[in-house]
Structure formats: structure tokens, C-alpha cells
Automatic annotation (TrEMBL):
This is ABC-2 type transporter transmembrane domain-containing protein. The keyword Transport applies. The keyword Transmembrane applies. It comes from Prymnesium polylepis. Coiled coil: none annotated. Residues 4-121 form the ABC-2 type transporter transmembrane domain. The chain crosses the membrane at residues 21-41, 61-84, 96-112. Keywords: Membrane, Transmembrane, Transmembrane helix, Transport. Its main location: membrane. Signal peptide: none annotated.
Length: 121
């Protein structure tokens, strides 16, 4: 998603200057278009993972699991849209996005040293 907005920036700027619609309408419509393309694959992935991992039985638990996965996907799309809005160069935006993701991975606890964690956690 990091290269979507720079490719459309000239058209959006021209249409915004002519008063056809605002920036909010553009971002909302872009999100609505990407929603079904991202929602259903995430729902399918959640269904496969949930039942293969043998998690708790019950629809409310499955719905919570699937909802969290879909929300994480939507947050990633929003971050990609933000990066592509900040960097207008079509070639540079997909190169900057992994660097931003690396920052999130570094501070998420994924690379946490097990010996430094207290035993009560």
C-alpha cells in the first residue's frame, strides 16, 4: 500500500484544487475500496489458524480472534497510507516502509532477551 498514494497524488491534487472533493473523502474512499480486499483474506486466515491451533471453542472467542487480526491488518494499511502520503516519490515509499516496520519490530518485544524478563511475567 505504500505506493498507492504517490501514484494517485497528481490526480487527487488536481481534483482537490478544482473543488471536487477534499482530502478526507479521498482517504475514506481509498480505505473503503481496500477494505473488502483485505477483510476477506484476513477472515479466511483467521478461520484456518484458529481451528488448526485448537484454541477455545465458542463463537465469541473466534470472533474476538478474527476481529483482532482484521484490526491489525487495517492498522498496517493505515500505516502504509501514512507513509505513502508523507513520501511523494513512487520509488522511495516502498523502500521506506520496511525501515518503519523494523522500528516497530525492534521495540515490540519480539527480540526480547528471555533472561532479562522477570520470572513472574
Amino acid at each position: 500500500t505504500a505506493d498507492i498514494i504517490p501514484r494517485q497524488l497528481l490526480i487527487v491534487s488536481r481534483e482537490r484544487a478544482s473543488g471536487m472533493y477534499g482530502v478526507g473523502a479521498y482517504y475514506f474512499s481509498t480505505w473503503v475500496v481496500t477494505l473488502p480486499l483485505e477483510f476477506f483474506p484476513q477472515l479466511l486466515l483467521a478461520s484456518i489458524q484458529y481451528f488448526l491451533m485448537g484454541l477455545r471453542d465458542g463463537f465469541e472467542y473466534y470472533a474476538t480472534f478474527a476481529g483482532i487480526l482484521v484490526l491489525e491488518s487495517q492498522c498496517a494499511i493505515a500505516m502504509g497510507m501514512l507513509i505513502s502520503a508523507l513520501i511523494s516519490n513512487v520509488e522511495a515509499a516502498p523502500k521506506v516502509a520496511p525501515a518503519v516496520v523494523i522500528l516497530f519490530l525492534m521495540f515490540s518485544g519480539f527480540f526480547l532477551n528471555d533472561e532479562s524478563v522477570p520470572t513472574w511475567l
